[in-house]
Amino acid sequence: MSAPDERGALTPRPSLYDYALRRYGAEPDGRLPEGGYPVPDPPPRPLSPLDRRTARQNAIDAVTPFLTDPDAVRAADGVQRRLDELGLRNHHVRRVVAGLPLADEAAALALARRLTRTGSGSAAVALGLGLLARLGEPEDVPCLRILGLIRDFTGDAVEALARLDRPAAALVWLAVRVKDREVRPLVDALAAGDDQAARARLTTVPASPRALGPETARRIAEAVRLADVLREDPVDPGVLAQAARLLSRMTSQRDYRPEILLYEEAVTAYESVVERAALLPPTLDHCATLLSLALDLHSGPSSVLPWRPGRRAELLDTLESVLRAPAWEALAGLDSEDPADRRRIRWIRRTARQPFRLSAADAPGLRIEVAVRDPADPDVAETRPLIDGRPILPEAFGLGPGNAPEELLDSGRLRATAEPREVQLAEAYCTEGCCGALYVTVQRDGDQVVWRDWRRTSSVRRGQTELPAYRFDAADYDAEIARAENDHSWAWPARITARLLAAGLRDRPDLLSRWDARFGWVGTDYHDPDTTVLSFAYQPGLAPRDGLAGGRLDMDRPWLQFLWNLPDDGTPPEARAAAALARLESTDPTTLAQVRGGSRERAEALGFPWPEGERKPRQAGG
């Protein structure tokens, strides 16, 4: 052994806890580090394909013998050495520790504490954190707070802390994960233990989706102990308004699960906000925020919170009485030069009555709602099935919103026939290929319609409710589906234009195919919902020729995606859709649209310029 190797073997590595504690001690004024600290370990050696396939079992075999050793020092040294020998990563350990049987919890807890305080290897510390997530006690909070500052351990430490001290867990998460400069002053005030400064900073946190994502909103509410703040009398109107915004942001489904369902104080916070809503001045922002809360209480994830019987209806009645007061109703009659305000005003006009049309007690059977969120917090337009007044998607799926009304209603997919039809009701926020989708089989059975054979195309399980078969009176069912298909009160002009354009292209597919184009989708731009967007693929040879049908993309030959933007010019949607279809009669759509998909090489091969540094529009559903 060479001298350097010998020194490395004889010199023990410092514990990762000591490393993080030393780094934190050097922070000015005890500030929490933005972005956390890196792990000082060198990258682990790559695992062979065989090692990757057997990593789970290797982790179980490596850890299990040490969980019942009464000598924590010996057990910690042994398990760390074994994990290092196998080259296992944090995630290998993380995947197995939650399910390991713990025959001797006292020994396992002692091992966890030894590993988290003295462990020098990442996998060993991850094991300790996983055990503390199951067994930790209040005395472990200081250690967990420090280890959470190492960004590779933040998620594990926050999970363990959440059982013991949710505000501490939320603060660690905010410190490491949030980089928005307008949120950092709040984090600093919380870290300093300055409650007054924290409340002042709370009201200055911007409510934009970019700065305040759904999980960030929940973590802020937990870190500032929002439910406790709202119990005070009087409560600052600025704090009350910000609390309403935080709750509204938590209801967004642009995440893997609605954060409102993870917020343990959601019911208390909701009640405090709604009961004092009349104290807020009637402004456009306050009106849109309260209406958003009402819409979610009516048919969104908030409706399945653990409300006592009748309480949700009481809160909706209270919100209705506030929003129907003359000063609040007058807001829907405003006009504005600001496009964003104008969109919000029009949304309030369309949505003002929706949450209050039908109470749960008066809604037996099936009800189909289409919900559109506040344009200041853009999201997809989603179809929400309610059965006996209760939304089914948040409990039965909860990984993404309901599918767009164009997919479920305009297509006629929910119509019942004697032939069973499987229908996708919702898809995960990420995509079905990642976290799955929810399907149901719809079939007419005599004078009834049955929804049965519910199917999730994912192994992700987060406490979802298993649904039974539901039977509906066929006449009532047909009437409800017809009502929902013909109710377009939720749609705005650009969305109506998109729906009419889609219908026209379904009736006349030749309008695109004659130009070697294939229909993709039509909807509204996610960032500019007043713009209708038509997506199509272009590839020479798609048009029918010499008796051949054409229309199929050959993935082995160059093709491009085009987007044709149709801004709202103030003309009626019917006229705009008809004009667009008429242009396709005589004009090659590639001369009207811009390349937005494919590759530079494909574009050059087909003779089109490749866009440089332009934002690719996202579809806002449909």
Q: How would you describe the overall organization of this protein?
A:
The protein is an alpha+beta fold. Helix content is 45%, strand content 11%. It has a four-stranded antiparallel beta sheet with strand order 4-5-6-7. A four-stranded antiparallel beta sheet has the order 8-9-10-11, with helices on one face. It has a three-stranded antiparallel beta sheet with strand order 1-2-3. β5 and β6 form a beta hairpin. The chain is globular, with a radius of gyration of 28 Å.
Topology (SSEs and partners):
Blueprint: H1 3-10, H2 16-25, H3 49-53, H4 55-63, H5 72-86, H6 90-97, H7 105-118, H8 122-135, H9 141-147, H10 154-164, H11 166-177, H12 184-191, H13 195-202, H14 214-223, H15 226-230, H16 237-250, H17 266-275, H18 284-299, H19 311-323, H20 326-329, H21 339-351, E1 366-371, E2 382-387, E3 390-391, H22 393-396, H23 405-410, E4 421-427, H24 432-435, E5 437-445, E6 448-456, E7 470-473, H25 474-486, H26 493-507, H27 510-513, E8 517-524, E9 531-538, E10 560-567, H28 573-586, E11 594-597, H29 600-606
Antiparallel strand pairs: 1-2, 2-3, 4-5, 5-6, 6-7, 8-9, 9-10, 10-11
Helix pairs in contact: 4-5, 4-6, 5-7, 6-8, 7-8, 8-10, 9-10, 10-11, 11-14, 12-13, 14-16, 16-17, 16-18, 18-19, 18-21, 26-28
